[in-house]
Amino acid sequence: MQDLKPAAVAVKQLVKVFSGPDKGELRAVDDVSFEIAQGEVFGLLGPNGAGKTTTLEIVEGIQHATSGEVRVMGYDVATHGKDIKPLIGVQLQSSAFFERLPLDHLLVLYGSFYGVKADAEALLSSVGLLEKRSSLLSKLSGGQARRFSIAACMVSDPQIVFLDEPTSGLDPQARRSIWDQVNELRSKDKTVVLTTHYMDEAEVLCDRVGIIDHGQIKALDTPLKLVQALDSAYHIRFTSTGPVPTEDLQSLPGAVRISSSSNGSATRYDLEVANPGPILEGFTRIMGTGLREAADLRIEPSTLEDVFLSLTGRELRD
User: Fold this and answer.
1) 280 burial via Cβ count (<10 Å: 0-12, 13-18, 19+)
2) 95, burial (CB in 10 Å: exposed 0-12, middle 13-18, buried 19+)
3) Phi, psi (5° rounding) for residue 192?
4) Alpha carbons 35 and 3: distance in angstroms, whole number
5) Cα separation of 11 and 65, whole Å?
């Protein structure tokens, strides 16, 4: 008989409404349902104000839901908060730590909040910071501070780790170091739930992603399947110094849409297509007529960023 494990996180018809005397009601989370399997790396993606942070704070027990049900490792968050606390680790921002204690003392202090004796040396070694054990947090680089925050959320050896924008503002080397930490957690069969604005990061790290907007889940699947479901699976990108008959390109079989941006005398075009193969002959014929040339021609597959923008729009949000 198959051993059925409970989902690491199970969210069912979650609703969160904020209300105020002047602003009326804001439905920040609107009938959200999803499950996260044990050992999965799951990404919750969305624009600013989409509801992802509120959703995760309810899962973590920081906020209370207006209605719906949230279970963590089978426990109801609303009634079993004490049982859930040692099962989860939540990444803290650097401002949440005491700045006048060295790193190893900080970890011991943080472990005491969970009633455990933290092995500071092992935790610091796991994130490559053992040589910094006597340093103050304020003396660390951005990437080192972020790695320390991951060590801190592991003091209770949690089964589920929540990482909020773990690589935001970091340089490429520091980002890759954090990616290595996430993969290390995966190798230990930890469940990782992360938010990120970097779509390439979600594509590389996440087994599945949920895209949330206006408080609702718009899509949920593996990054590959979400990309494959797009009507435009490829981009034909090129630059031209002469006028391009965009209407002719748009009318080619399999063409979905075309956009452009100018930079001085040249214009950069992006022709989104379902399949580049059948369209190339017509594309070459159209671009070969008149005083124009398709320079810097590239054919590239669509990405999770294309999925994100197709579902949430391209307008900037604050």
Assistant:
1) middle
2) exposed
3) -120, 130
4) 18
5) 11
SS3 assignment for 175-209: HHHHHHHHHHHHHCCCEEEEECCCHHHHHHHCCEE
Query: What is the number of domains present in the chain?
Result: 2
- Residue 221 and residue 116 share a domain: yes
**How many alpha carbons lie under 13 Å from residue 56 in its C-beta half-sphere?**
26
Q: How confident is the model at residue 265 (pLDDT cuts 50, 70, 90)?
A: confident
% of the chain surpassing 70 pLDDT: 94
User: What are φ and ψ of residue 286, in 5° steps?
Assistant: -65, -45
Residues 260 and 195 in one domain: no
3-state secondary structure of 57: helix
CB of 92 closer than 8 Å to CB of 153: yes
- In this structure, which amino acid lies at residue 177? S
Q: Is the pLDDT of residue 279 over 70?
A: yes
Let me know: does 209 contact 285? Beta carbons within 8 Å: no
Pairing label, strands 208-213, 266-273? unpaired
Model-wide pTM > 0.85: yes
Domain shared by 139 and 273, yes or no: no
Q: Do 113 and 193 lie in a common domain?
A: yes
Q: What's the CATH code of the domain at 176?
A: 3.40.50.300
**How far, in Å, CA of 41 to CA of 152, rounded?**
19
Domain of 130 in residue numbering reads as 39-52+85-227
Tens digit of pLDDT for each residue in 34-71? 999 999 999 999 998 899 999 999 999 999 999 999 99
